[in-house]
Amino acid sequence: MVSGRFLGKGISVVxxxxxxxxxxxxxxxxxxxEKLGPRYVDPVHGYSLCVPAGARRDLGPGVKRLARWVKRxxxxxxxxxxxxxRKAAGAGTEDMxxxxxxxGAGLRGLPExxxxxxxxTRVAGLPGVxxxxxxxxxxxxxxxxxWARRGPGDILVLSISGALGLKAEMDExxxxxxxxxxxxxxxxxxxxxxxxLQRGRSLLEGLTAADLTRAAGGGEQWFxxxxxxxAIGFMRISPAPARDGSAVGVEVRTTxxxxxxxxxxxxxxxxxxxxxxxxxxxxxxxxxIVHGGKVIRQMSEQxxxxxxxITCRVTTDGQSxxxxxxxxxxxxxxxxxxxxxxxxxxLVDLSKPxxxxxxxxxxxxxxxxxxxxxxxxxxxxxxxxxxxEAVQVTDQxxxxxxxxxxxxxxxxxxxxxxxxxxxxxxxSTRQAVLRRxxxxxx
Length: 442
Description:
Elements: H1 4-7, H2 19-24, E1 36-42, E2 47-52, E3 56-57, E4 65-72, E5 79-87, H3 96-108, E6 113-123, E7 126-135, E8 141-151, E9 154-163, H4 167-178, E10 182-183, H5 186-206, H6 209-215, E11 221-227, E12 230-244, E13 247-259, E14 264-275, E15 280-291, E16 294-306, E17 309-316, E18 319-326, H7 329-332, H8 338-342, H9 344-347, E19 354-362, E20 367-383, E21 386-396, E22 404-408, E23 414-418, E24 423-428, H10 430-436
Antiparallel strand pairs: 1-2, 2-10, 3-4, 4-5, 5-9, 6-7, 7-8, 8-9, 11-12, 11-24, 12-13, 13-14, 14-15, 15-16, 16-17, 17-18, 19-20, 20-21, 21-22, 22-23, 23-24
């Protein structure tokens, strides 16, 4: 799997499915505002928000925090400020006015801390507290926090901290981020997630070789990719029935290429196979970045899932590493092979609204993600001057990812997909793609 850590500029190649193509394309601006990036969703802890544009999520361990983003100095690489979400430790049942007084008194009792604010307020539509302090000798650091009470003993804290010289910038960004903060009922979300996973398990357990053969029998599909009116690339998907010894299943090949900032281009190739009973899965992925006719980066991955073990060999610019991940029973019943993910619109029931939850493997983190595919309902879509009666669906690659919106035909063929960053891929033809990209079949 190719990770944003290898590529930079906000590019991330995420596991399997058509949505992978959208995830590879750098965003052009932020949807919430020029200063905010795409929405981050944490369904496990029941909140979502839009983080400041340019901030990078820190995936390292955080015992007390639920999530952390950092903004680094462009020249030195040092952390300029950090934004975090955490659950308040020892949150009681006192009212917000009493909590504000207790927090203020506690902060004033700390050495080298100047309390500028500790007041009751409303945060994300909930009772809350706002605190702001300068820390260190001569107030060298600034920390500004918003506490939101969701229920007794249940408080989420949104915090930004960094050099005091960035105080005005941090205060503005915290206010903008807080304006997008939505806090949900985690118990209700957990129940919905449980239902989705059960629906996904039932789908996988009921799949037969005939189902996969039928889903793979629609022939190859060609797509053009654009940002607004600007053409930026293409994709080709070629599914077919396959056999591995006595195991019957499916093979999906994908090819994609698109332009990157600075005159660069990126080409991605994948071959994914899986048996109908999911006992055998193999995949290969390769990506290269070209500039001025020269390959400047190369990445590849070879993976397999057999006998309850996932094994991946990842090579980046000649440096290889092998990752292994046991497929524990809790994940095994919901595990979605990569080839199946591409065919989801042709495997689920499109006749009624429903969501399907799956466990998918993410190589970069060597961990499982919750992927949710949801059927919304009927829609009408115009593609290439033709109007189609379609079905609207969404595909959320991971629990903390923004879902991609898709319109598919009633037989599950993709007509159009739109990402949260405004990238669009639309159904096209081989002839149309070759007219724009004559070497698309190479």
